[in-house]
Write a structure and sequence with these properties.
Order of helices and strands of chain A: HHHEEEEHHEEEEEEEEEEEEEEEEEEHH
Number of helices of chain A: 7
Largest interface: A-B, 34 and 39 residues
Number of strands of chain B: 7
Order of helices and strands of chain B: HHEHHEEEEHEEH
Largest sheet of chain B: 4 strands, antiparallel
Number of helices of chain B: 6
Oligomer: heterodimer
Strand content of chain B: 15-25%
Shape of chain A: extended
Structural class of chain B: alpha+beta
């Protein structure tokens, strides 16, 4: 088998495995302990059910079917709640009001940082969430018998510049810890909020009891950005509307993913805001799903795949997908083969606005603008602006007021005289006129 | 009257464009100004076809002792084939232009290619309908008449070169052309789209020797 054939086979395996594993693992992340502790008692059962479902989903290759799990939860008031979860043979969980005499598997969900959450909540949640996401990714990567031994925080300091949360994993159920994941939040500008995350994975790859650093990544955290503007909507030289936008990075991936818009308006003209409107949108700006594999079962990660979804136009829908694959086939440290593929999703943007030009309370004119990525290269390269009118007032747009179309790729932006040829109607007129004149000339000229 | 039924063929080719162009022009959509040139082209084709149909080519005046050995009229199959092939290219260009967002270069290529085949095919059809070739025992004559008369003749003793050729379109429908040149004033007669061009060329060779 040639190297090329082998690479192709590995890529096919990666694509198959990623489609069946990567998305469900990430999609069923464990709920955060803050979610558990802050929710009313009546919703605790529901949260536990989610936890059980996520735990079952994360135990790929090591099903929890038939097993029981005791969960100790530290509530926000300092009290401790214990619940038991049993899994039937199909893996479906049942929650019990108390733990088990023979605890079996246990899980500790503690939140020793509640006081700090009050002052800096989002980074803490983000760090914890990142730990759990990565834990699940690691457990999916493990060959078998992985046991999550600890999940909690270590060495946390607040008001300072660094906090570390970590989790240790025993992959082969021996007395040694085989992997540690550390997430460090750093407040570099001392404003009380984390602005940088350092993620480090340590693994005992040769099972000699010594942990080696596998990866260490550093990335920024964009927590929140707020801006506001005052407008004079009524055009009376008095500002009567305040628009405030806040963008938040809820998943700490460095991209703002939630938009909150607040509009305050002075509708009575007495210089007092008397109208309030709030809109919260989710901006799915970027999301990365990562999977790693030990293809030859030697204990080392030698294949990594990453799928990134990007929302380039902030319409809360992914419109670009980037697939990155890295392979290590020679056994030497580092990935010697990488590839990246970009594909477009929904490459069209369309907006329209209706106007009531005769002020009769019914819209009678509509302007629409549509932009498209015709050649699928990730850039919008054609646009069409149309203004249509309902001339007879029957509610149906029946006449074209204005229409302008532009497509990049043919005689575009090369000067005004040439731009006449951008219009397909002009092209038709020129072509037909030339054709008629040519035929007439040749008919008269003779054979 | 011209040979064949140029009026009928011109109506067949021109009427869809005329009707389609008028329909586009009277519609309330974005295609109004696109319809005008299309309708104009269709109307032009129909009018020219009727004019060609009404024109009667006049035969040349032969001398009393001059004998007509053969006369040929160009066959119309390659021209009709050419014009017909333009129609699907028009339809393709329209689809690309108004039902896709592809850059203009793609519909433009299809439109101008279709326009070339359509117009050159129809032009060839009209010219063939108004052309006749005569071979007598003294000369080779080409007669073409539209609004003006264009008559060429080469005396057989002056023929310097005879060339037989088959274009792609002629090859497709089993025809050919014969090019006859005199040695003076670059005078030449090309008998296009004729059946059995080899036999016609042999007759010329025999008589010119």
């Amino acid at each position: 088998m040639t190297a090329g054939t082998r690479t192709l086979l590995v890529l096919l395996v990666l694509l198959f495995v990623s489609s069946s594993i990567a998305q469900p693992v990430i999609g069923k992340a464990l709920p955060t302990s803050q979610q558990l502790t802050e929710e009313p008692d009546g919703e605790l059962e529901e949260s536990l059910l989610e936890l059980a479902t996520a735990a079952e989903a994360s135990s790929i290759g090591n099903s929890l079917a038939g097993q029981q799990l005791t969960v100790h939860i530290t509530m926000s008031d300092g009290s401790t709640v214990t619940r038991g979860i049993t899994f039937d043979q199909t893996g479906d969980p049942t929650i019990h009001e108390s733990g088990f005499a023979d605890p079996g598997l246990t899980a500790q969900l503690t939140e020793p940082t509640l006081e700090s959450i009050a002052t800096s909540p989002e980074p803490i949640i983000a760090v914890e969430k990142a730990i759990k996401y990565d834990l699940i990714a690691l457990s999916a990567d493990s060959p078998s018998n992985q046991v999550l031994t600890t999940l909690g925080t270590q060495g946390i300091t607040y008001g300072g510049q660094s906090s570390i949360m970590s989790a240790s994993i025993d992959l082969d159920d021996d007395p040694h810890t085989d992997a540690i994941l550390e997430i460090e939040g750093i407040d570099t500008n001392s404003d009380g909020e984390f602005d940088t995350l350092v993620r480090t994975v340590l693994r005992d790859t040769n099972n000699d009891g010594t942990l080696e650093t596998i990866t260490s990544e550093r990335r920024p955290v964009a927590t929140a950005v707020t801006g506001s503007v005052e407008l004079d909507v009524s055009n009376d030289n008095v500002r009567d509307t305040l628009l405030r936008l806040t963008g938040t990075d809820t998943n700490t991936d460095g991209q703002l993913d939630r938009k909150r818009q607040i509009t305050l308006a002075d509708t009575h003209g007495d210089t007092q805001f008397d109208s309030f409107a709030e809109t919260i949108n989710t901006i799915s700006s970027t999301r990365i799903v990562t999977g790693t594999w030990d293809l030859n079962n030697d204990g080392n990660v030698n294949a990594r795949m990453e799928i990134e979804g990007v929302d380039t136009d902030d319409d809360t829908a992914f419109d670009r997908r980037i697939l990155r694959i890295a392979l290590n086939l020679d056994g030497q440290p580092g990935f010697e083969s990488t590839s990246e593929t970009t594909a477009q999703i929904n490459p069209t943007l369309s907006i329209s606005t209706e106007f009531d030009t005769n002020n009769d309370g019914t819209p009678d004119t509509k302007a629409s603008l549509e932009a498209s990525d015709a050649n699928n290269d990730g850039g919008l390269d054609s646009q069409e602006l149309a203004v249509v009118n309902d001339s007879d007032g029957d509610g149906v747009y029946d006449s074209v007021v204005h229409r302008n179309e532009f497509r990049r790729g043919f005689l575009a932006n090369t000067g005004d005289p040439i731009r006449y040829l951008d219009d397909p109607q002009n092209l038709t007129l020129i072509g037909v006129t030339a054709s008629i004149l040519s035929m007439l000339f040749q008919l008269v000229q003779g054979g | 009257m011209a040979r064949g039924v140029p009026a009928l063929w011109s109506v067949l080719f021109g009427l869809p464009l005329l009707a389609g162009g008028v329909a586009l022009h009277t519609s309330n959509q974005y295609l109004q100004s696109f319809g005008r040139p299309v309708a104009a082209l269709g109307g032009f084709v129909i009018i020219i076809g009727l004019i060609v149909q009404l024109i009667t080519p006049e035969p040349p005046v032969f001398q009393d002792d001059e004998n007509i050995i053969d006369s040929k009229n160009p066959n119309q199959r390659p021209t009709i084939l050419k014009a017909t092939l333009g129609i699907p290219l028009f339809l393709t260009a329209s689809y690309l232009l108004y039902f896709t967002k592809l850059p203009y270069v793609y519909p433009t290529i299809f439109f101008f290619t279709g326009l070339f085949l359509y117009s050159s095919g129809l032009l060839g059809y009209w010219r063939n309908a108004l052309t006749t070739y005569y071979l007598t025992d003294r000369r080779l004559i080409s007669v073409y008449r539209f609004l003006t008369l264009n008559r060429k003749e080469i005396a057989l003793p002056n023929i310097q070169m005879i060339q037989e050729r088959k274009s792609v379109w002629e090859k497709l429908v089993g025809l050919g052309n014969v090019r006859v040149a005199a040695g003076v004033a670059d005078l030449e007669i090309v008998a296009n789209n004729i059946r059995d061009p080899t036999a016609f060329a042999d007759q010329i060779r025999t008589r010119s020797n």
